[in-house]
Design a protein that fits this description.
The protein is mainly α. The protein has helices at 5-13, 18-30, 34-38, 68-81, 99-113, 121-134, 139-146, 151-154, 162-166; strands spanning 45-46, 51-55, 61-65.
Length: 178
C-alpha cells in the first residue's frame, strides 16, 4: 500500500505522542522497517554524513538517508522531549518503543483519520521506495537504502510507478522523418 504525502501527513498528525509521531516520520523519511526504527539509538545518527546507521534483518548493517528536514525535526524532538538514552524513541518508562505496540498505534491512527486504505507501518517503507523511484532514483541505490540483498526484492516497486513507463522515451519519435 502506497500513501500520498497528504495521507502520510494526516497519519503523523493523528499520532498520540511525539515519540510515535517521530518514529513514523523517521520511517517515512528513511525507509526503515518498524523494528529498525524502534531500536535506533542516538549514536546511530550521523549528521555530518547525512546518514543513519541501521541494523537490519539478519543483523546486517546499512546506511539510510538522514536529510536535513528530518534531522531538524529529530533535533527539535530530542531537545523538547528528551528520550531516555541511549534510545531515540522511548515510552514513559524509558524503554524503546515496542514494535507491536507501535503497530497498534498506527492502526488506530489509520482508523482515526478515516483513510479508507488498509495501511500498515510497512506502507511507509513502500511509500518511501516508490517516491524515490518516481523521482528518478535508480534501483541499485534504492536497493542499498532499503537493505535488500537481492535486486528482485526491490523490483516489486516497479509495478507501482506505472506513470514512469508511460513517460519513457518513445524510440519511434527519435527516428528522422521519412
Amino acid at each position: 500500500m502506497v500513501l500520498s504525502p497528504t495521507e502520510v501527513a494526516r497519519l503523523l498528525a493523528a499520532m498520540p505522542t511525539p515519540a510515535y509521531r517521530m518514529l513514523f516520520c523517521t520511517m517515512y523519511a528513511s525507509g526503515l522497517r518498524i523494528g529498525e526504527a524502534c531500536r535506533l539509538v542516538v549514536s546511530d545518527l550521523d549528521s555530518d554524513r547525512g546518514a543513519i546507521r541501521v541494523l537490519g534483518k539478519g543483523q546486517k548493517e546499512r546506511l539510510a538517508a538522514l536529510h536535513p528536514p528530518l534531522l531538524a525535526e529529530l533535533r527539535a524532538y530530542w531537545h523538547t522531549y528528551r528520550p531516555i538514552a541511549p534510545w531515540l524513541f522511548t515510552g514513559k518508562y524509558g524503554l524503546p518503543l515496542d514494535p507491536d505496540q507501535a503497530r497498534k498505534v498506527f492502526k488506530a491512527a489509520v482508523l482515526a483519520t478515516g483513510l479508507g486504505k488498509r495501511a500498515t507501518p510497512h506502507s511507509l517503507r513502500h511509500t518511501y521506495a516508490t517516491l524515490l523511484l518516481e523521482h528518478g532514483t535508480g534501483l541499485p541505490v534504492i536497493q542499498a537504502l532499503l537493505g535488500h540483498g537481492a535486486l528482485s526484492s526491490t523490483k516489486r516497486y516497479l509495478h507501482v510507478a506505472t506513470h514512469l513507463i508511460r513517460g519513457s522515451v518513445d524510440p519511434m519519435e527519435l527516428l528522422p522523418p521519412p
